[in-house]
Design brief:
Oligomer: single chain
Order of helices and strands: EHEHEHEHEHEEHHHEHH
Helix content: 25-40%
Number of strands: 8
Structural class: alpha/beta
Number of helices: 10
Strand content: 15-25%
Distance between the termini: 11 Å
Shape: globular
Largest sheet: 8 strands, parallel, barrel
Radius of gyration: 19 Å
């Protein structure tokens, strides 16, 4: 069984681990490599890295800002996630109308024409009136040229209800990999549009061979690899079978399986890469091109079957 792929999702560079497991010098090299390859979309947030070190609040976007200035870049498409007031992994956010407008101005001044999408981040509110105020500010931002997105919305049904009066064409970030997905959570936004930007495609750094080094993101996040045994076994079997086909580039590991899973999902607008080195960036871009050029549809069918 093969699955038709009618459009190619964007490839987006993530910045969540910059200034944490990824020092500025390496981030610069990754940016150089990504940009030279022709890719332009970058995802960042006020609270990156979320390493619980207050001194690093906004550090990831500061690295991006410095790289832009050094290289005189003006053609990026940066996704700017705002709202979090610290990087302590706590739920405190400011998504008021005034702060939304302040954030829109801040990012436009900070990133210039490279700032493309404004995205409320981590909204746990269920107060419709408060959310409507956020929408009103986002409407002003949209009129000023911003694209509008969402990330980490606890009550998407409220957002969908309010949006009947605003008609935003939201792009929405979701965690999505062969083990888990937030896609069902956003059922009110399921339609024919490719609107979902996937992150966490590697399952947080899961290795099918069980070999983890000190640079793995799980180590920095102080988490252990967790995947249901049956799904882990299935992933290994699918990967092994997939690589018996010699007429196309092989899948180098679970990260490639995760990218394939996101690439073929029918509502994927973009895939956010969580690479930590130039080598990983190069491998990811190479496999992304392979996904666009070769048919891996039967692997996706096996993953979702």
């Amino acid at each position: 069984m093969s699955v038709a792929q009618t459009a190619t999702p964007d490839l987006i560079l993530g910045t969540a681990m910059w200034a944490w497991s990824i020092p500025k010098a390496e981030a610069f090299k990754i940016l150089d490599t990504f940009y030279a390859a022709g890719f332009r979309r970058i995802d960042t947030a006020t609270n990156y890295p979320i390493n619980k070190n207050p001194a690093d609040f906004r550090a990831a976007e500061q690295i991006l800002h410095e790289w832009i200035k050094v290289n005189n870049i003006n053609d990026l498409g940066i996704i700017c996630k705002y709202g979090s007031v610290n990087n302590l992994f706590t739920p405190e956010v400011n998504l008021t109308e005034s702060f939304t407008l302040i954030s829109a101005k801040y990012y436009r001044d900070f990133f210039g024409n490279n700032a493309e999408m404004l995205m409320p981040h981590w909204d746990n509110r269920h107060d419709k009136n408060a959310i409507i105020e956020t929408f009103a500010a986002l409407q002003t931002a949209e009129k000023d040229g911003w694209k509008i997105g969402l990330s980490g919305i606890k009550f998407p049904e409220i957002y969908a209800e309010i949006n009947r009066n605003f008609n935003f064409d939201f792009s929405i970030e979701i965690k999505h990999n062969p083990f888990e997905s937030a896609y069902p959570h956003y059922a009110p936004f399921h339609d024919e549009k490719r609107r979902f930007l996937t992150y966490g495609t590697t399952g947080g750094g899961v290795k099918l061979n069980g070999n983890y080094d000190a640079k793995n993101s799980l180590h920095y996040r102080r988490k252990t690899a967790s995947a249901p045994t049956d799904k882990l076994t299935k992933a290994k079997e699918i990967l092994q079978k997939a690589n018996t086909v010699t007429s196309r580039p092989p899948l180098a590991g679970f990260w490639a399986l995760g990218m394939l899973n996101a690439f073929y999902a029918p509502q994927t607008e973009g895939i956010i890469l969580g690479v930590s080195s130039v080598k990983q960036a190069e491998s990811s871009m190479e496999f992304y091109r392979a996904l666009a050029a070769f048919d891996y549809g039967e692997i996706y069918a096996a993953l979702i079957g």
